[in-house]
Amino acid sequence: MKEIVNCAAYSIGHKTVDIDLDKIHEILKDPSQFVWIGLYEPSEEILERVQNEFGLHDLAVEDAHRAHQRPKIELYGDSLFIVLRTVHMVRDCHIQFGETHFFVGTNFIVVVRHGSSVAYTDVRTRCEAMPELLSKGQGFVLYAIMDFIVDMYFPVVEGLEDALEAIEDKVFKGNPSRETTEQIYQLKKDLLEVKRAVSPFIDICNRLMRFDIKYISPETQPYFRDIYDHALRINEIVDNTRELLNTALDANFSLISISQNDTSRKFAAWAAIFAVPTMVAGYYGMNFRVMPELQWTYGYPMVVIGTLCICGVLYYLFRRSGWL
Amino acid sequence: MKEIVNCAAYSIGHKTVDIDLDKIHEILKDPSQFVWIGLYEPSEEILERVQNEFGLHDLAVEDAHRAHQRPKIELYGDSLFIVLRTVHMVRDCHIQFGETHFFVGTNFIVVVRHGSSVAYTDVRTRCEAMPELLSKGQGFVLYAIMDFIVDMYFPVVEGLEDALEAIEDKVFKGNPSRETTEQIYQLKKDLLEVKRAVSPFIDICNRLMRFDIKYISPETQPYFRDIYDHALRINEIVDNTRELLNTALDANFSLISISQNDTSRKFAAWAAIFAVPTMVAGYYGMNFRVMPELQWTYGYPMVVIGTLCICGVLYYLFRRSGWL
Amino acid sequence: MKEIVNCAAYSIGHKTVDIDLDKIHEILKDPSQFVWIGLYEPSEEILERVQNEFGLHDLAVEDAHRAHQRPKIELYGDSLFIVLRTVHMVRDCHIQFGETHFFVGTNFIVVVRHGSSVAYTDVRTRCEAMPELLSKGQGFVLYAIMDFIVDMYFPVVEGLEDALEAIEDKVFKGNPSRETTEQIYQLKKDLLEVKRAVSPFIDICNRLMRFDIKYISPETQPYFRDIYDHALRINEIVDNTRELLNTALDANFSLISISQNDTSRKFAAWAAIFAVPTMVAGYYGMNFRVMPELQWTYGYPMVVIGTLCICGVLYYLFRRSGWL
Amino acid sequence: MKEIVNCAAYSIGHKTVDIDLDKIHEILKDPSQFVWIGLYEPSEEILERVQNEFGLHDLAVEDAHRAHQRPKIELYGDSLFIVLRTVHMVRDCHIQFGETHFFVGTNFIVVVRHGSSVAYTDVRTRCEAMPELLSKGQGFVLYAIMDFIVDMYFPVVEGLEDALEAIEDKVFKGNPSRETTEQIYQLKKDLLEVKRAVSPFIDICNRLMRFDIKYISPETQPYFRDIYDHALRINEIVDNTRELLNTALDANFSLISISQNDTSRKFAAWAAIFAVPTMVAGYYGMNFRVMPELQWTYGYPMVVIGTLCICGVLYYLFRRSGWL
Amino acid sequence: MKEIVNCAAYSIGHKTVDIDLDKIHEILKDPSQFVWIGLYEPSEEILERVQNEFGLHDLAVEDAHRAHQRPKIELYGDSLFIVLRTVHMVRDCHIQFGETHFFVGTNFIVVVRHGSSVAYTDVRTRCEAMPELLSKGQGFVLYAIMDFIVDMYFPVVEGLEDALEAIEDKVFKGNPSRETTEQIYQLKKDLLEVKRAVSPFIDICNRLMRFDIKYISPETQPYFRDIYDHALRINEIVDNTRELLNTALDANFSLISISQNDTSRKFAAWAAIFAVPTMVAGYYGMNFRVMPELQWTYGYPMVVIGTLCICGVLYYLFRRSGWL
C-alpha cells in the first residue's frame, strides 16, 4: 500500500485537481480551495514534506509518526491536531485497533492512517457525491471520517454483547468450567480496551462543538453532536456489558459453589447407601460361638433382602430431599 | 395501527380543527394556533412531509425514523428535538421498551411513537378536558405526555422491587439454587436497562427548566420540575434495589457456603456413627485362636447392645453440637 | 388525632391568638404577625382551605396530600415548599419513617405531618418559651422543627451502630449462621433507607443558607448551618457503618470457609484414626491357612493394644498440628 | 488537670503578662496585643465567662462544650470557630481520639482541648522561642497548634502500615486463621476512623488559605499549605493501606480456599492408600470353599508384602503429583 | 557522588561559564543569563548557601532537605517549587523510587535529586546540543528534565504489564497456588505505588500550562502538554492493569473452587469404585451356615471377575461424565 493514498484540492464542494505534495503551497494561495491529503503509515521524509507545506508543529508531527498515542485533540496555533483510535473486527471476534491522525488548518486537512483499519476511500467517494455538504469545507471532511470511524465501533460492541450472551448461556446452562472463566477474563480485557479507545471521543466532540474556529462552521456543529451521541451510546453499551460481566463472574462463582455442594451431597448419599450392606456383612462375619441367625436356613437370603430394602428406602429418602 | 394517529390544530386551549398533513402550513400562518401531530412508526415518506411542513433538521428526522436512540434533548435552531424511552410491563413481569420522539417548535408539537408502548390518546383527551392548562401551548402538551411516560415507570420499578423481595425470600428461606442465582442476574439486567432509560430524564428536565424558549412559558417550569422529581425518585429506587441486589448476591453466596458446611458436618457425623459398629464387627471377625469373648454365650447380644449404645451417645453428642 | 393540631398567630415572639382556619386572611393583613399552622394527615378539603388562604401552588398542595415524596426544597414564587422524612425508632429496633411538609411564606408557616412521627407540640412549647428567638419569625420556627427532626435521627443511627456491633460479636465470636447473614442484609437495608432519608438534608440546608428570602433572616443562617452539620454527621456515621458492614460480610464469609476447613480436617483426622483398627481387624480376619500370629495365645490382646497405641500416636500428632 | 491551662497576653512576639480570665477585656482594648487562652475540658461556667469576654456565638460555645463534633471550620461574624480531631497512639497500637476547638478573633485565640491528647505546652514554649514568627499574631499560633496536631497523625498511620505488614506476613506465611480475619476487620475500622478524622483537614486548610481575614496574614498562608500537604499525605497513606487491606482480605480468602483444597487432596490420597490393604484383607476374609491362595504356605506374607508395595507406589505417585 | 553535580550559567542557549556556588549573585545581575544547578542529596549547609543566593522560602528548602514529599507544585512569591517522584527499574523487576525537587525562579533553576535515580547529565548534554531550544530559558530545562523523568516510567509500566501477563499464564494455565496469590498482591502494591507517583504529574502539568509566569514562555506550553499526555497514558495503563488484576484475582478464585470441585469428584468416583469390591468381599465373609455360592467350585473366580466388571463399568461411567 502506498504511503500517499490521495492528495487533491477541492473548491465549492468539487474536486478541482489531483496535486503533487510539493505543489501544495501554490494551491494554498487560493483561499476558496482546500487540500485533502490521505496518508498511510508515512515515512519520516514524507511527513517532513507535509510539515513544511503546512507549517505543522514539531510535537504533533512527531506524534503522527510514532503512532501509539492516546486519542486526543490539541490546538497548535490555529491548526487542530486530532488522534483517534479505529477499531476493526477480524474473523472469530478478534478486535484489531488502528490509529488515525488529523491535521486540520485554514485550508487543508491531512489524514494519517496507522495500523489495521479500513481505508477512507469510500468516505471520499461519498463526500464527493454530496457537493452541497462538502462545500462546507474541511470541517465536514473531518466529520465524515470521524463518523465513519465511530460507525466501525458498532459491529464491535455488538460482537462483545454477543460474547456476553454466549458466556451467560455457558454459565447458567452448562457446567462451570475453566474455559468460561477464561472467556470472562478475555471479554473484560476487550471491553477495557474498547472503552479506552472510544471514551475520549466524547471529550473530543465536546471540544469540537465548543471551539471557535472559523473553518468549523456553526452549521457543522450538529454533525459533531451526532458523533458525540454515538460515542455516548457505545460507551454506555460497553459500561453496561462490563457491569453485567462482573455480575456474571459472581454468578458463575455462586454456581461453582452450588455444584460443589451437589457433589458433596451426592457423595454423602451414596456413601450412606453403601455403608449399610458393608456394616451388615461385617456383623455376620463375626465369629461368636453363639449367633443364632447364622444357623437359620434362610438367614442368608433374609439378610440380603433386608439390606436391599434398607438401601432402597435410603435411596428414596435421599431422592426426595434432593441429595440424589 | 395507522401511522398518523392524530393531527389537529388548537387555539386558546380548544381543538379548532382536524387537519390534513398537507394543509398544515396554512394553519401555521396563524400565530395564535398550534398544531399537535401524533405519529406511530411513520414511514420515511410521511416523515419527509412533516419535515417539509415544519422545516425540521435532517439529523433529527433521521434519528426519528431509525429509532433506537439514546434519550436526549437537542436544540436545532429554535426547535427542540427530544427522545425518551417508554416502558411497559407486560404479563409475567416482562419489561418492554419503546421510544417516543418529540419535535417542538414555535407553533407545533410532533409526537413520534416507536415500539411497544401505550397510545397517547388518553393524554390528548385529558388535555382537551383542561382548556385553561392546554391554553399554555405546546409546552404543556410536552409536559403532559412526558408526565404520562414517567408515570408508566412506577409500576415497572414496583415490579422490580417485588422481584427483589421474592428473591430475598428464596435466598433466606429456601435452599440455595441455580434458579435464584439466575433470577438475581436477570433482575440486575432489568435494573440496568430501566436505569439507562430513566436516568437521562433528570438531565432532560433540568435543561427544559433552564432553556429560555418562548413557547415554554416560565409558569410551566414547575411542571417540568415535577417530572424531574419523579425521575429522581425512580432513579433512587432503581439504585437502591441494585445495591440491595448486590448484597443479596453476596448473602446468597455466604448461605451456599454455610449449606455446604452443614452437608459436610452431617456427613461427618453419620460417618462417625457408622464407623463404630463396622469397626467392632471387624474386630470380632478376627480369627485368633484365643479370643475369650467369642466363646461367651451372651457375647453376641452384648456386643450388639454395646455398639448400639455407643452409636446412641454419638448421635446425642452430634445433635447437641449442631452437626446433626 | 384531629387534623388541625394547632393554628395560632404570633407577634414579636408571643402567641397573640388561636384562630380559625377561615379567619386567617384577616390576620395576614397585619404584616407584624405570622401564622403557624400544624396539620396531621389533613383531608383534601382542609388542604384546599389552607391553599386558598395562603395562595399555595397546585403541585405543592398535591404533593402534601399524597405524601410519599422525596425530601426536597422548592421555591414557588416567593413561598417555600419543603419535604422532609422523619424517623422514629419503635421497640425492638424497628425503624418507622414519616414525612413532614412545610409551606413557608411571607407571614405564615404551615407544617403538615404524615405517617408515624412524634408530634411537634413540644417544639411549639419550647419556641414559645424563647420569645427573643421566636421573634425572628417563621424562619426560626422552620429551624426549630427541622432541628427536632434531625435530632430524632441520632438514636436511630446509634441503634444501627449497636446492631453492627452485635453482628461483629456474632461473626467473630459465634459460629457462622444463616441468622447472622440475614441480619447483615437487614441492617444494610435499614442503612440504605436512613441514608436516603437523611442525605437530602445536606442539600436542603445548603440551599436554605444561600436563599435570599426576606423572611429567613441572615442571623438564622448559622442555625441552618448547625442542622447541616448534624445531617453531615449522621450521613458520615451511616456511610461508615455501611462500609464496615461490607467488610463484616466479607469477614463472615472468610470465617465460614475457615470453619469449613476445620470441619474437613477434623473429619479427616478421625477417619484416619478409625481406619487403623478397621484395617488391622480386616487383616486378622483373613482365612490363610498359615498365619502364625493367630495361633499365639497373646495374639489378640497384643493386636488390640498395638492398634490402640497407633491410634493414640495419631491422635497426638493430629492434635499437635491443629487438625483436632 | 486544671481547666484553665494557660491564659496570657502577647505583644510583638513576646508574652507580656499572665492574666486572669476576668481581666481580659482590659487587655483587648490594646490592639497591639493578643490573648492566647488554653482550656482543658472546661466547665459550662468557665466557657460562659470566656464567651462573655470575647462575644462568641452561642452555637459555637455549645459545640465547644459538648465536644463530639465533626472537624469543621465556621465563620461567625469575623471570628473563626475550628474543630479538629486529635489522635494519640497508646501502648499496643491502640488509637485514642480527642478533640481540639479553636476560637480565633481579632485579638485572641482560645484553644479548648477535649479527651485524650497531648497538652500544647510544648507548642507554646516553642512559639515563645521564635518571637519573629509569633509576632505574626494569632494566625501563627493557630498554625503552630494545627501543625502539632497533624504531626501526631504520622506515628499513628505508620503504626497502621506496620499492622498491615504484620497481617501480610500472617496471610502469606502462616495459616489462615480466625485471628487474622478479625485483625483485618479491626485495622479496617481503625483506618476508617483515622480517615474520618484527618480528611476534613484538607478542606479546613483550603478554606484557611482562601479566607480573607485580616488576622491571618498572607505570609502565613504557605504555612497552612504545608499542613494541607501533610494532611493530603496522611490521607493518601490511609487510602493506600485501605486498598491494600481489601486486596489482603481477598488474598486471604483465596489462600483459605487453597488450604481447603490441600486438605481435601491430602485426605483423598491417604484414603486411597488405606483403601488398598482394607480391600485386600476383605478379599482373603471370604469364606469360599475353594480359594487356592489361602492354602499356600507363603500366601499370607506374599499378600502383606504385595499390599505394602502397592501402598508404596501410591504414596510415591501422590507425592509426585503434589497431593501429599 | 559529590553533592554539587553541576553549576553553570547559560546565555542565549549556550553555557557561558562553570561557576562557584558563592559567585552566583554576580551572575544573577545579568538578566540575559540563567543559572542551572544540579545537586545530589545536598547537605543542610549547601542548601542554605543555595537558599541565600536565590532567596528561597524556608518551607520549600526544608522539604527539599527532608525529601519524602508528595509530588506537588507550589508557588512561593514568583518562584516555583516542584517535587516529582522518579522511578527506576532494577534487575528482576524490582522498582526503586527517588525524588527530584526543582526550584525555578526569574533566572535560575535548581535541581535537587534524592534517592535512587539516573543522573541528569545526559539531559544537560542533550539540552546543550539544542541551543535554539535551550535559549527559551529555564522553562525549557524544566521541561527537558520532567520529560526525562516521565520517560523513565514507561519501561516500569511495561514491566508491570509483563508481570500481569505472567500472572495470567499462571492463573489460566497452571494450578492455583499460594505463589500466584502472593504475586497478585505484590503487583497490586507496585501498581498503587506507581499510580501514587505518576498521577500528580497530570495536575502539575496542568498548572504549569495555566501559570502565567514570565520565565515559562507560552511557546513552551505545548511541551508541558506533551508531558501531561504521557502522564495520562501511564496513568491509564496503570488503571487498566489494576482493573485486570482485580478480575484476575476473581478468576483465580473461581479456578481454585473449580479445582476443589474436581478433587471432590475424583475422590468420590474412586471411593465408589473401591466400595464395590469391599462390599462384595464383606458379603462372602459372612458366616451363615447356608450360603450356597461359597460351596461352588468357581464361586471365588466368578465373584472376583464380577466385581472387576462392575468396577470397570463404574470407571467408564465416571470417565464419561467427567468426574475422572
CATH topology of the domain at 1-133 in chain A: Beta Polymerase, domain 2
* Major β-sheet profile of chain A: 7 strands, mixed
Which blocks of ≥5 consecutive residues of chain A have pLDDT under 50? none
> What Rg of chain A is obtained from the alpha carbons, in whole angstroms?
35 Å
Order of helices and strands of chain A: EEHEHHEEEEHHHHHHH
**First and last CA, distance of chain A:** 65 Å
Oligomer designation: homopentamer
Residue share in helix of chain A: 55-70%
CATH architectural label of the domain at 1-133 in chain A: 2-Layer Sandwich
Name given to the CATH homologous superfamily of the domain at 1-133 in chain A: CorA soluble domain-like
Widest sheet of chain A: strand order?
2-1-3-7-6-5-4
Structural class of chain A: alpha+beta
Largest interface: A-B, 43 and 51 residues
What count of helical segments of chain A does DSSP give? 10
Strand tally of chain A: 7
* Net shape of chain A: rod-shaped
